[in-house]
Design goal:
The complex is a heterodimer of chains A (263) and B (275). Chain A is an all-alpha fold and 263 residues long. Chain A is built from 13 helices and no strands. Chain A is globular and about 60 Å long. Chain B has a two-stranded antiparallel ribbon. Chain B contains twelve helices and two strands; from the N terminus they run H-H-E-E-H-H-H-H-H-H-H-H-H-H. The chains are: A mainly alpha (263), B mainly alpha (275).
């Protein structure tokens, strides 16, 4: 374990050197992400200039949920962005052999290799939204709120990363699976809004099938109202654990099935 | 006449290649499409909630029915006018493979255009009919009458074709510029977000402050998406449509001119070593 922590420091140091060389590139990526989010929020602003509340949710509450949904999204984006490349390029081009020859866990190596600073565009939006919405809301606060929040963040991020690991691992069999990752990843947008706006079918899918609702709406609604902790927080922990176990299983099975594409 | 014939004979293989490419990667195409259309469905639910939360039948002049048509036809228009065929131009200039293109007896942008057309033919066949039919069935179910007006529909197709050509030449210019920036992902994200906003694909221009909306309506970006969608929805009178399509043609000419200029100056400064 200590060895991996030490390795991670080296990976990040290596990465920061690369970052210093291509400063503008990363700045552009971050600006792009920031702009995308700001325009979405401008849209919400226009909507709320005409209505007092969205089926019972005030503007501040909607912004809080929206901001909350970005926490796990940006953390996952920051740390595991390289998983996209597994499905898009690494396996198809035969670059995966490199990871197999190293004496460290392949999944860890793939993930640690890249550190996507562009995600700070999302982080900034997230912080601004939370700072703007929280003072307007009357949220219950206890001694356990902050520890609970940390737990939720860890498991919500695991939900994101595990879904990416599973879909990336499909390429061990099919050589390319970036489009499958893309398709599943896009459903995370559903979690930005209160789940109650969707019909039953969509609610079921984003709660039990692709549980992105547990990365944002459910825990956020618990922090807003203090209701249903077992389902809202427990669900996030269970969904994160189950998916992560599944992800490790699929990844390891995939490694056994992997045949190099040659290079 | 024979020149026209020769023209099409020259570029037909590119169209075929474009079609084959899409068919070969059809699983990618379908997954990508599902991922993209999801955002239209999310917005559908958001608007449904908005209309449930207000007492009035309309939201800034749009009914729920209008909103649904707007969302899905905007998605369709954006998808069909999306152009990245000329995107690799910048890369080819850097690595020198553009030389191979220049020695061939065909125009570089026509190669891209016809290849992309092959791609588009398949996408049109696969998504145009389902989306238009879906929207019209929805409208029929809501209002109890058939709302699609043939005149507006045909003019929509004309406007859509011009929008595609504007988008094509705009992206040729962007392709040239893109290679100055190394982070293609970042610049493309910025470009797409800004164009999406300016063209009214994120927020209908009618919802923006009137001064801003008037300016954006005149800029080339509205011609990419907002104009055809409004024509489809029957928001414009025939007189207004004539003027809008005229404006689209004007911007098409401008984009065409600019792309030619950029190409000329790039070729003049081009020096390929080896290759």
């Amino acid at each position: 374990m200590m060895r991996y922590i030490r390795l991670h420091r080296i990976f990040i140091a290596q990465y920061l050197k690369k970052l210093m060389e291509y400063k503008t590139d990363f700045l552009l990526g971050a600006i792009g992400l920031l702009l995308t989010q700001i325009l979405q929020i401008a849209f919400l602003g226009i909507v709320f200039s005409q209505i007092p509340a969205l089926i019972g949710w005030s503007f501040a509450e909607v912004l809080f949920i929206y901001g909350f949904s970005l926490i796990a999204k940006f953390l996952d984006h920051l740390f595991t962005d390289n998983l996209w490349m597994v499905g898009y390029r690494i396996i198809r081009k035969g670059e995966f052999d490199k990871y197999l020859t190293r004496p460290i866990n392949t999944l860890y190596h793939v993930i640690a290799e890249n550190f996507c600073v562009d995600a700070f565009g999302e982080a900034l939006t997230c912080i601004l939204l939370l700072l703007y919405s929280i003072p307007q809301l009357n949220m219950p606060f206890h001694w356990y709120t902050i520890p609970l929040l940390l737990v939720v963040i860890v498991f919500a991020t695991l939900i994101y990363s595990s879904l990416k690991i599973i879909t990336a691992a499909i390429s061990f069999w099919t050589k390319a699976s970036g489009h499958i990752t893309h398709m599943l990843y896009m459903t995370n947008d559903f979690s930005k809004y209160p789940v109650s706006i969707y019909n039953k079918a969509v609610q079921t899918v984003i709660t039990y099938v692709i549980p992105f609702a547990f990365t944002a709406y459910y825990p956020a609604s618990y922090f807003l109202t203090g209701k249903d902790p077992l389902f809202c927080i427990g669900g996030t922990v269970i969904a994160g654990t189950v998916l992560f176990a599944l992800a490790l299983f699929v990844w390891n099975r995939g490694l056994k099935a992997y045949e190099s594409a040659g290079s | 006449m024979s020149r026209v014939k020769r023209f099409f004979r020259t570029y037909k293989p590119f169209t075929r290649a474009g079609m084959q490419e899409l068919i070969a990667y059809r699983a990618n195409f379908i997954c990508f499409l599902i991922g993209e259309i999801m955002s239209a469905f999310i917005m559908y639910f958001v608007w449904k909630a908005v209309f449930l939360s207000t007492d009035s039948e309309t939201f800034m002049g749009f009914t729920m029915e209008d909103m649904v048509v707007y969302l899905f036809i905007t998605f369709l228009t954006g998808y069909l006018t999306y152009s990245d065929g000329a995107f690799s131009v910048g890369e080819e200039i850097v690595d020198g493979s553009i030389a191979m293109r220049m020695i061939k007896p065909c125009s570089f942008e026509m190669c891209f255009l016809f290849q992309e057309l092959g791609n588009r033919i398949i996408s049109v066949a696969m998504i145009f009919v389902p989306i238009v039919a879906g929207v019209e069935i929805y409208r029929y179910a809501v209002s109890g009458m058939f709302r699609l007006q043939i005149g507006f529909f045909l003019l929509y197709i004309v406007s859509l074709l011009i929008a595609y050509m504007i988008s094509f030449y705009f992206n040729v210019c962007y392709g040239f510029m893109a290679f100055f920036f190394k982070n293609l992902w970042g610049t493309t994200l910025i470009k797409e977000t800004v164009v999406g906003f300016l063209s009214g694909a994120v927020i209908p221009l009618a919802f923006l402050p009137s001064g801003l909306a008037a300016v954006l309506n005149f800029l080339p970006f509205a011609s990419l998406s907002y104009t055809p969608v409004m024509i489809y929805m029957g928001m414009y009178s025939y007189g207004e449509i004539a003027w809008r399509i005229g404006l689209q043609l004007f911007w098409l000419l401008v984009m065409y001119g600019v792309s030619k200029l950029v190409w000329r100056s790039a070729v003049k400064h081009l020096a390929v070593q080896g290759g």
